[in-house]
Amino acid sequence: MLSGWGRLPLPGRQVLGEDLERVARGMPLTRGLGRSYGDSALPPPGEARVAGSRLADRILSFDPDSCVLRAEAGFSLGELNRIFWPRRFSSPVLTGTQHVTLGGMVAADVHGKNHHRDGTIGSHVRRLKMLLADGRVVECSRESHQDLFLATLGGMGLTGHILEVELVLQRIPSPWIWSEAERMGGLDRFLAGLEQSAAEWPFTVGWVDCLATGRHRGRGLLIRGRWAEPSEAPSEPPAPRKRLVIPVELPSWVLNRLSARTFNLLYYRKQLRRRTSGIAHPESFFHPLDVLIGWNKIYGPRGFTQYACVIPETDGTAGVRRFLGLLTSLGVASFLCVLKDFGGEGEGMLSFPKPGMSLSLDIPVRGNIREMIARLDDCVIDCGGRIYLAKDAFTSAESFRAMEPRLKAWQEVRRRWDPDGRLASAQSIRLLEDRR
Amino acid sequence: MKVAFLGATRGMGRALARRMAERGDALFLLGRQAEELERSARDLEVRAGQGEVGTALCDLEQPETFGPALTAAEGALGGVDAVVVTAGMFASQEELEAEPARALRLLEINFSRTVAFCEEARRRLLRRGGGRLCVFSSVAGDRGRKPVAIYGASKAGLSRYLEALDHRFRDQGLITVCVKPGFVKTSMTAGLDPPPFAGEPDAVAKTVLRAIDRGRPVVYAPPIWRWIMLVIRLMPRFVMRRVGF
User: Fold this and answer.
1) Interchain CB contact of B167 with A (< 8 Å)
2) I need a labelling partner for A50 at 20 to 30 A (CA). Which of A3, A148, A227, A319 fits?
3) A209 located within any domain
4) CA separation for the pair B151, B141 (Å, rounded)
5) What is the ipTM of this complex?
6) Do residue A55 and residue B187 have CB atoms under 8 angstroms apart?
7) List of chain A residues with pLDDT < 50
8) With contact defined as beta carbons under 8 Å apart, do B56 and B5 qualify?
9) Is residue A276 part of a domain?
10) Mean of the pLDDT values across residues B197-221?
11) Does domain B2-242 have CATH number 3.40.50.720?
């Protein structure tokens, strides 16, 4: 059995090897570190195996002058951080967890707290080396095989196996973060605060208590940060953080409306003062949950999903307000919900971000989950938004078509490079209606 | 340390070489495939952030490559004070029983050729007044067990040789470290279901590096396998005949 981070298993196993090109040959898909929540890194029904990239993890070159790093697709963001932060370089995009591979980051065209300024990882990728469905190995970029390159950014590994990635790193003044957290009493102030902060700060994100109602609706913490200047940062590079392991699966009832409500309240009240600031460890700023190894076990045997969507702000905050209202009426018991304002739409033909407000919340799987997700999808479609494939497990093909007018163009490119439809995932069968 | 490393391109060897490079040891890589060696050398160079990592072809199946490869390492590093061998061959008992030629090849690579390579390395290290020779054997050599009759025999022979080498030359300054990995999640074991206590390559590398520094003659990695194997060694024959491991 194989499952995504949400622990909803499907039959299958991954084949691992240092030589990814050999391992991936003939496989329907390559899987990285398995941090996508749903079924995007799982084999299509009827096929037992996917290739695993995590042993193909070598750095192939790094030029400190041009900041260009080339590495095998299984090289992880965690290793990149560990090796390059002390040398004053950083990945231009840092995801919520560092346990992701470069190949996975490209396939999902991931974003981070600096999306409003720096876009997705795709805009910092120069070249990709890929193993195609027909067995050929090609290099693609904006100059060569551009269609393949742009369809692969955010293409969920369905255009070919990503073997190597060339990424432009960013120089940083120090490996520490200067961060501020401010309590926001309600949604209007929160959204205004995000907008204001976006102009001045490279990193911004909001943690919202989506169980609060009435005048408290949309209350939460607004967090913003920037790389610290050498004069304000400690002289030593940050030491590895102590980690806690969640050793066993907790029973499913542990996470209920009451525990979620209590947690959200404590989180909102965790700082006494309205605003706090100071030097922060980059890992606790960018990857806060990585300190709990195996935290997905907290959700118990039934697993969980993440609902991540972006809602355009064409009519101000109405869409976000409506979405939060729907969460309340559906009785979604969610721990903190993450709010992030997106910048422009990237180049990836199927990438998730576009201008607007993104919301992501973890939802424990219960009997009515499909119905619940369908209601949320309807709201997102109405608002002209869309969902994030790396998180999705329950959206229907019909809903996805309705929110993705770009799908047809992407499928055309995909068919050009994989005419026999050899590449597929459990998600592409469910959501894109691939036939096998 | 100045280290000549046979087998750094994959698995536990890759993890150990990275730890060595990152703490500032100078490395020279030996192996069968030039392109693989080059890619691993570049990886280690970037991780170390300084110095060059040289490479030379060396194939356990071709003993005539041993001398020139070690000479190249000595030349590039300005003398070698540690030799690490993680290279080896693995196949399941079923595969080896079905293909006698493959079994013979495995016995040669894991035992006689590895011993021949170690002899070459030992002579050179002793000439310089000693050093460290770290060789990866396996827990499979600790007891005759059903699923590893042939592979285990090759490693049992190797472990005995390394034990004797340590007895024979320690007072001349040559410290021999015999590494006995338990089940470690590498590409070698990728087709097998991991048992409890399966280890990760990087954790093994950490344990092994400490053992090399301290000059331990035998190291189990992950360390818990020392106790697992103690129990297995103590089991009576009639039990071993019945159980499947």
Assistant:
1) no
2) A148
3) yes
4) 8
5) 0.94
6) yes
7) none
8) no
9) yes
10) 96
11) yes
